[in-house]
Each structure stands twice: as structure tokens, then as C-alpha cells.
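quick q for whoever's on today - can somebody do inverse folding on this one?? i tried earlier but teh output was garbage lol. C-alpha cells:
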């Protein structure tokens, strides 16, 4: 999150500040890596964009001025201004991988219970999550948004059942179209 202790001064005065130190920029880029999921805490009013606390988005990049460029799930792309706006990182790719590893190790009584468990763990960060049954014993979990530098992010799950129809996950694989190059190109254009 933009930690409030990092910001001193009035909101109006900070809005005009566009230069941050290298140390602050490094901290921000580590706190908000490209592709991580963020939740808006508060933002200075923008007459053209209606965002509310609690809205979710995906970080595109942190620019040299310390602005966090976010693609919001509601369809807007808007930067969080250093020292003015506040958000918190709610999930990094590593955290999703940890959750998926735990899910893979668990047996489930039914496919419905597995889906319910996945929903409980991920719907707070991916509210548009959905499940698509594939051929055979495979299901695709569509996260509903781009995240972790992947467009169409999802998880392919292959499973098997025992004689009592319990579900055992054989393989889980995160899928999606890589979009790293697109954001790097945007950053290079902005720096000119």
C-alpha cells in the first residue's frame, strides 16, 4: 500500500511534486511489481473517472515520477499519484502460486466443493472468477482480468477421481498471454 508514513505535506502540495528519489522509486517498484493486484484505499477526486475505495485493479508499471499506473477492473486506466492517492497490494504472483500449491495438495469430496474452496480463496482479489468445464477431467479457472503480466489469466486444472468420486488434482498450470513487452514499450514511449 502507499504507506501514509512515506508522505508528508498537504495533498495539494504533493500533487505538484513529480520528482522522487531513487530510493523511493525502488521501494515503490518493490511494493507494486508489474502485474500485482491492488485495492484502492482513497484517491483525490477526478471529474472524469469514478473510482471508489475498495475498487480492484492490476498494476501496469511504476513510472520515474513514482506514479503507479493501474488498469482498474471497472475499465479505467489511471495512475495513482505519489503522495496523494493510496492503494494496497492485495496479491502478488508468488502468493497466488502458494495458494495453488495448497489447493493441489488437498483432496476434495466433489468438484463443486473444490470450486467453492477456490472461490473462497480467490474471489476477494478476482471478483470476476469463473469456472469452465473442459473435456475429460479438466477445468479452467478464468480469473476474469489480466494480472501478473498475463492477459486472460487463468488456471488449468487436471484432476482424477477415485471410486467414491473424490477429486484429486494431478496438475495445475497458470495460463495466459504474456503482455510484458507491451508495458515495457509503453514505458519507453513515456520516457522520451
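ok took a stab at it. sequence:
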Amino acid at each position: 500500500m502507499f504507506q501514509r508514513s512515506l508522505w508528508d505535506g498537504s495533498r495539494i502540495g504533493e500533487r505538484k511534486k513529480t520528482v522522487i528519489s531513487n530510493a523511493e522509486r525502488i521501494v515503490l517498484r518493490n511494493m507494486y511489481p508489474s502485474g500485482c493486484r491492488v485495492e484502492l484505499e482513497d484517491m483525490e477526486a477526478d471529474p472524469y473517472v469514478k473510482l471508489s475505495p475498495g475498487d480492484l485493479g492490476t498494476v501496469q508499471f511504476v513510472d520515474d515520477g513514482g506514479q503507479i499506473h493501474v488498469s482498474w477492473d471497472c475499465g479505467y486506466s489511471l495512475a495513482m499519484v505519489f503522495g496523494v492517492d493510496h492503494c494496497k497490494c492485495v496479491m502478488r504472483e508468488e502468493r497466488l502460486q502458494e495458494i495453488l500449491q495448497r489447493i493441489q495438495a488437498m483432496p476434495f469430496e466433489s468438484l463443486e466443493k473444490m470450486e467453492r474452496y477456490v472461490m473462497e480463496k480467490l474471489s476477494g482479489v478476482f471478483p470476476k472468477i469463473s469456472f469452465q468445464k473442459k473435456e475429460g477431467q479438466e477445468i479452467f479457472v478464468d480469473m476474469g482480468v489480466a494480472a501478473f503480466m498475463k492477459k486472460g489469466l487463468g488456471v488449468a486444472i487436471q484432476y482424477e477421481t477415485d471410486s467414491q468420486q473424490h477429486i484429486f488434482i494431478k496438475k495445475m498450470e497458470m495460463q495466459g498471454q504474456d503482455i510484458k513487452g507491451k508495458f515495457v514499450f509503453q514505458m519507453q514511449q513515456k520516457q522520451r
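fwiw Residues 48 and 63 are 22 Å apart (CA to CA). also The two ends are 29 Å apart (CA to CA). so keep that in mind when u check it
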